[in-house]
Amino acid sequence: MKITFLIHDIYGIGGTNRTTLNLAAAFADRHEVTIVSVRRHRTRPRFAVDPRLTVVPLVDVRKDATESDLADPLLHEPSRAFPTAEKRYHQYSRLTDVRVEEYLRACDADVLIGTRPGINVYLARFAPPGTLRIAQEHLTHDSHSPKLRARLARHYRRVDAVVTTTEADATVYRAKMRLPGVRILAIPNAVPEPGLPPADGTAKVVAAAGRLARGKRFDLLIEAFADIAARHPDWTLRIYGTGPERDRLQQLIDDRELGGRAALMGVASPIEAEFAKASIVASASDAESFGMTLVEAMRCGVPVVSTDCPLGPAEIIHDGVDGRLVPMGDRKALAAALLDLIADEPGRRRMGRAARRAAHRFDPARVAQVYEDLFAELATTRASRNRERATSRWRVRARRAVRSLRGPRR
User: Fold this and answer.
1) pTM of the model
2) Pairing of the two strands 132-137 and 111-114
3) pLDDT of 320-334, one tens digit each?
4) Which of 13, 54, 300, 375 could form a disulfide with 34 if both were Cys (CB 3.0 to 4.6 A apart)?
């Protein structure tokens, strides 16, 4: 089977890139796999790419590359196909539209998998007949603007499946976006075994990782750690990542006189090597579409203390067994949960072992098998799903015709 992923920019860093590479490598054990990167902004991807995978860039925006597309006039014309309400719209152009359409029209893949809303629209519009079209959602339904949701509702009717990362989000899609003939289901992200000895629970380190953005609430984590610092002066907080909140977070660390105790460590890839040096990993986010760092920590045998935010953590962590869930935005509850694990070394070791066992459900091979079962199901039900689509279209047209005959209501 030929499987092709279409992704924004595989050369960059981010959770979607990591999980796409993980899943693609698992597929490569049995299938021919291609990753089509709409953009290319650097020579080599930041993450390691399995040599069995084929990477195809479509639009080259490297400033120093001889084959760069920066001089193409279409690059400077706005896209006509990519949704304007998509947050990446400013990075798409008429050149992007043309290159993606040309590639997809000629594509001989059995399965095409899109990895963000605007790219899923491309799949719906340009994928050849007979190809299975899978629209992955790495964000959430409610995180999209009403304008984008309306656009997606029109185009997602043409795909074969919408795959979310959590059952909670799949439930929202089923309730709020009527898609006749389209399978809506949740499949978690694939997270491989790190290949490192698990943490032993003795290091006096709390770690955290993610984009330093407001929604990740690293400020709340720093405030909670300030409550811990006076009682446990031998414990430290390490935050990995970069982003627009870096200066503000550093100022908060300075204001709380946590210099030497709390540190912004910059980007670390792979992050598992750093998580294995910690005894607790913390997440204070206001929202998570999945929670890759939670699973990555668990795979290292490290218990996680996370806010019970929508939508991912509650489907990853079994509270009190392999981690802790605390109310969102509650600094005292976050500090209390961290203090409980800091004070209980046997307990956090036990919880870390449970976390490592629980994380096996995210093995790439298991996740790939779920997708393969989905492909088989979609191929078998193609005719019945097409009839369901046609029936729905007929009913909509019939209702419109009836309303037209009745005339305007008084």
Assistant:
1) 0.90
2) parallel
3) 999 999 999 999 999
4) 54
